[in-house]
Design a protein that fits this description.
The chain is α+β, with helices and mostly antiparallel strands and about 375 residues long. The protein has twelve helices and 15 strands. Bound molecules: glycine.
Length: about 375
Amino acid sequence: MFKHQIYFFRLSESFLPLFDAETSNFEQLKNKTMVDRRKFIKTSAFTGFASLLTKGAWSMTETGTIKGKPIVISTWDAGLRANKAAWEVLVSGGRALDAVEKGVMVTESEQNCCVGLGANPDRDGFVTLDACIMDEFSNCGSVAFLERIKHPISVARRVMEKTPHVMLVGSGAQQFAIAEGFPLEEQKLSSEAQKNYENWLKKSEYKPPVINVESQPVPQAVKQEHGPFAPYKLETGEWNHDTIGMVAMDTNGNLSGSCTTSGAGFKMRGRLGDSPIIGAGLFVDNEVGACTSTGQGEDVIRVAGSHSVIELMRQGLSPEAACKKIIERIIKIKGAKAKDIQVAFLAVNKKGQVGAFAIHKGFSYAIKTNEIEKLVPSKFIME
Ligand code: GLY
């Protein structure tokens, strides 16, 4: 009897769309699968039935977890390249944890305004990096204010695996990284970052973070009004995106996540955003789902953003609905100032459903599954 139930879930699950934001809890999903099952039994000949059974390389457990259907999602267009590296791990049956580390390492190695050592410096001219990682057992590790180390995400993983702690910062994190064999890189800005920094130095204006980093192009006058704490667009024309966050489910149905950034360009020295903070920039609960965020870190921290999304998903909300609720909470807190900030959340649940929501238009996320590989524009509240 039990075996048959599993078979029926396998069969009917193939009718389910991946993006089922409306199917917000397992009861609904089960009802849907039962309807599909009845339809299927009515219309299938025995031979077709048998052949479909043998094709079922993945299944849904009684708790609604999909197994054998890996998925990886990550923030922004750089996520497309990062997902490819994560996918190699997932498709060969590897752990989601390895996938999310390998994935964001790609972005850390690329020239990117806001991730890795090539990124824009703080206002004193130093690149300082933040990262965190979390696995299916609620193990987590984090580094912040880390300088001259190429892969902060791997140091965060080492903190998780080799120390009794969750977080190491600054020179202590660097000391730990060196002791673990990570090379100490040259203290030097990339040529792009040097150019951007020299431009910024012309005014050296520092304003509080009232920005809309990822939104659509805005008139020069508005850009000036918001100041250069983190310009809308860099002089190179590149968007000042701030983070790569990645969450993934492996073939065993286990979840993990990673998040890595240089933070806001030309930030006050020592400033941290949400990205290295477990519960803010990233949270994973293997019973429920995984969530990451991008945008104005201060405003993600004040609502314990990614953790809050997960708790709403635990109550039965779809990933998209949960992300939307926390975006609305931030908007409520910020009031009129919400027009000047961008925050976005991106989440996956145990059924492999994904969803995102942003304050402003312009956020997109990259998705890779067996079936699709693309950039998806997120829903948003404000133009
Ligand atoms: N979300 C990245 C930061 O605020 O630093």
